[in-house]
Design brief:
This protein is α/β, with parallel strands linked by helices and 383 residues long. It folds into two domains: 181 residues, Glycogen Phosphorylase B (Rossmann fold); 176 residues, Rossmann fold, CATH 3.40.50.2000. It has 16 helices and 13 strands. The protein has a seven-stranded parallel sheet with strand order 3-2-1-4-5-6-7, with helices on both faces. It has a six-stranded parallel sheet with strand order 10-9-8-11-12-13, with helices on both faces. It is elongated and about 65 Å long.
């Protein structure tokens, strides 16, 4: 059933392609954009390669048409034919891939359908992603006009691959900072849920339990910090393939009584303010949503120097950055924060202010809309 037009008559027509609408950071970002874009200038439809998902109905409730590919259309040739016909029917001005893997469809199908502007997406490690695509990567770069990237580091990586001539638009991930922060309430919530003492210092992290998160480094840091802070607790929010292995590492470190595994949670925003320190020990990151959310909640962050972390944190001012795999440096920064309430509050509030100033949803929406308009103008369209 056709929905009523989500934008004003005569607005620029945009088709956004995405692979799935699960409970992920990119998907939440998409919802925020669709909630906030200028409907007087743009008419947006969403093309979903894999039908269903958590965000389908919330997006439809915004008045956005979500077009799901039939379940039978799973192979690339069939998808190219289906999406090309669909784009021709929609008569789009812009075709934009929200994440990387639909980029080949935005590029190839958009070109076959005669869409004037075709935008792809690159993440923090273009050399890894493009290497895994093989011959498809060459096709992508012949068919897209520009890429949207979520960090400056991605543009530098792309330049090293010889892609400097392709236009890049940096659109940072956005975060919605809570209007107020009630740490006491969060501490009571965590105490009620997991029996962590109200007065105990708490280190926390949020993310998938997978190899690139490098939780073994964090476990070592917790173990060593607990020597000076024997009442220290830690919390791992998230789940993943390495949960059993990570829990075993905690047992081997003698921390079973002090480390809580929550699994996947829908109430992360209630938990975050209870953290005294947020730690990220990743070996690879883009612009980490979990770190942004912690900073927006006023929690001081200690993070490894990977991906776009330096775009989020001013070292020593709005958080601490340590070399990747440097447990000593992480322990030192954690001790500094646990040892001074004043330092924790100062750095936590500086991080929150940075998120509210530079990484707001309004900023993200305006930046992406300006990218749309710039590309159309360069193509000779009067916008």
């Amino acid at each position: 059933m056709a929905l009523k037009l989500n934008s004003a008559e005569g607005a620029l027509r945009v088709a956004i392609l995405t692979g799935q609408l699960v409970k992920g950071g990119a998907e939440r970002e998409l919802y925020s954009f669709l909630k906030g874009f200028d409907r007087s200038r743009f008419s947006i439809r969403l093309i979903l390669l894999n039908p269903g998902g958590y965000w389908v109905e919330p997006i439809r409730s915004l008045g956005i048409e979500v077009i799901e590919l039939p379940e039978a259309v799973t192979r690339m040739p069939g998808r190219i034919l289906y999406i090309t016909r669909l784009l021709k029917k929609l008569n789009c001005d812009i075709c934009h891939s929200w994440n990387f893997y639909p980029t080949i469809y935005a590029g190839v199908c958009g070109r076959l359908a005669g869409v004037p502007v075709r935008l792809g997406f690159l993440q923090d490690q273009p050399e890894y992603v493009l290497g895994s695509m093989g011959w498809k990567a060459k096709i992508i770069f012949r068919c897209v006009d520009a890429f949207v990237v979520n960090s400056e580091i991605a543009t530098k990586s792309a330049a090293h691959l010889g892609l400097g001539k392709v236009a890049m638009f940096v659109v940072h991930n956005a975060v919605e900072a809570p209007a107020t922060i009630d740490r006491d309430s969060s501490k009571r919530f965590v105490n009620a849920q997991w029996d962590i003492p109200l007065e105990a210092p708490l280190i926390g992290t949020v993310g998938r339990l997978d190899p690139k998160k490098n939780h073994k480094m964090l476990i070592k840091a917790i173990q060593r910090a607990s020597i000076e802070h024997p009442n220290l607790y830690a919390m791992f929010v998230g789940d993943g393939a390495l949960r059993d292995e990570t829990e075993a590492a905690v047992r081997d470190a003698g921390l079973s009584e002090r480390v809580v595994f929550t699994g996947t949670r829908d109430d992360v925003n209630e938990i975050l303010p209870a953290f005294d320190v947020f730690c990220s020990s990743s070996t690879s990151e883009g612009l980490a949503n979990a770190i942004q959310e912690a900073m927006a909640a006023g929690v001081p962050v200690v993070a490894t120097d990977v991906g776009g972390i330096r775009e989020l944190i001013d070292d020593g001012e709005s958080g601490f950055i340590v070399p990747s795999e440097d447990t000593d440096a992480m322990v030192q920064r954690v001790k500094i924060l646990l040892g001074s309430t004043e330092t924790r509050n100062m750095i936590g509030m500086a991080g929150r202010e940075k998120m509210m100033r530079d990484f707001s949803i309004v900023t993200m929406v305006e930046t992406l809309q300006n990218a749309y308009l710039k590309m159309l103008t360069e193509k000779g369209h009067n916008v």
